[in-house]
Specification:
Elements lengths: L8 H13 L10 H4 L6 E5 L1 H6 L1 H4 L4 E4 L5 H4 L10 H12 L3 E9 L7 H4 L3 H19 L4 E8 L8 H6 L24 H5 L2 H17 L5 E6 L5 H16 L6 E4 L2 E3 H6 L1 H17 L3 E10 L8 H17 L11 E6 L21 H7 L3
Parallel strand pairs: 1-2, 1-9, 2-3, 3-4, 4-5, 5-6, 6-8, 7-8, 8-9
Helix pairs in contact: 8-11, 12-14, 15-16
């Protein structure tokens, strides 16, 4: 699929300068997607309210990811077989009309399963059948004219595997390995796929998605595994082992989505180690021949930026420096960073995690990730 890049970074700078001369109260800045047109698509998460309220900010992005609208519990919420694609269709249609591309997110996730699912999920084979139906129905509904990849499985690994879990291979999220994630009090319905199916549900999900691509001619579609804390060495090692096992079994996987919910405090504790872990993770995943997408980037500072904005910007800048560095393969047979998505772009009263202020003016972080031009 060819990505419509729009203006070049140079031309965008010229346009910004002309607009500034015309009398705007502040100097406009180049669109991020134009600045990064020679590297990879730049995306953000999206929903109806963002489309309605953040049109000027959306001009910075040529890729979008539906935040919740493609989750199973949203699309098949009532009775089995009664599909509600309206919310996701709104976003995909907007992308189609505005020359954006879309990351499909996500086909199989242990959270936000339909209310009817557990009653239907009577045994392993039935669960795998339901997975097949979910994946084929969803992928064929949206097709491949604007959707360029799918997060096939989301968050199947425990957050911080122990040495014992790594040694045994029992590093998959389940009620036994990660009981807090399956306890009471969660806002959406959760299901222990691993407890019922073992890792076969992951293998089956990717195999079914691959079959759909082949049968329906989705030749350019990429299939991703997506998770957070993917820069942490223990989780990186678990993911690498999972991928190697999939590859050994002939299961197609094209890429890794590194969600990128990064707490500024973690970076401040040991900056050199944080950046090394981040780069080492990208090298490990691309070294397997996989592409990497940064799928949900935010640098989390909480409600106040006081005394934190410069270091928040610094971390954003270093992340993007490394992503540019690996936007081409670092050795023969390696993959590359081929997409970067922010999990929001504009600060709100509840968080100051992003690169634009609540008034849509750029923060220091914006300048850190564009200063290379």
């Amino acid at each position: 699929m060819k990505i419509k890049r729009g203006l070049t970074a140079f031309f965008a700078l010229a346009v910004a300068a002309l607009i500034s001369i015309s009398g705007c109260s502040y100097e406009p800045v180049p669109y991020l997607c134009d600045v990064y047109s020679d590297y990879f698509p730049i995306g953000t998460c999206c929903k109806k309210s963002i489309i309605e309220s953040y049109g000027d900010i959306l001009n910075h992005f040529n890729s979008i990811t539906p935040e919740y609208e493609m989750k199973w519990g949203i699309m098949e919420p009532g009775e089995k077989g009664e599909y509600n694609y309206a919310e996701a269709d709104n976003i995909v249609n907007w992308a189609r009309q505005n020359n954006r591309i879309v990351r499909g997110h996500a086909l199989i996730w242990y959270q936000n399963v339909p209310s009817w699912f557990e009653e239907e999920a009577t045994d392993k084979e039935r669960v795998l059948e339901l997975i097949d139906e979910r994946i084929e129905n969803t992928m064929t509904h949206f097709g491949d004219d604007v959707i360029y990849c799918w997060d096939v499985v989301n968050e199947a690994l425990v957050d911080d595997p122990s040495e014992e879990q790594l040694a045994s291979g029992e590093f998959y999220r389940s009620s036994e390995n990660d009981p807090d994630r399956f306890g009471d009090g969660h806002s959406t319905i959760r299901y222990d796929f691993y407890g019922m199916c073992g890792r076969d549900y992951i293998w089956r999900s990717f195999s079914t998605a691959d079959r759909v691509c082949r049968e329906y001619g989705y030749d350019d579609m990429q299939l991703f595994y997506n998770d957070w804390f993917m820069h942490i060495p223990a989780k990186r090692d678990a993911c690498v082992q999972m991928v190697k096992d999939m590859q050994a079994d002939g299961v197609r996987i094209d890429g890794i989505g590194m969600q990128g919910h990064y707490w500024l405090n973690d970076y401040q504790e040991d900056k050199a180690a944080f950046i090394k872990n981040f780069e080492d993770a990208i090298k490990a995943y691309t070294g397997l021949g996989l592409d990497v997408h940064l799928t949900e980037i935010e640098v989390i500072v909480g409600k106040s930026l006081f005394g934190k904005e410069s270091e928040q910007a610094e971390l954003y800048g270093k992340i993007f420096d490394i992503c540019r560095k690996y936007s081409t393969p670092w050795r023969e047979g390696a993959g590359a960073v081929t997409s970067v998505t922010l999990w929001g772009a504009v600060d709100t009263s509840g968080s100051k995690n992003f690169i634009f202020k609540s008034n849509h003016r750029p923060k220091k972080a914006y300048y850190e990730i564009t200063d290379f031009i």
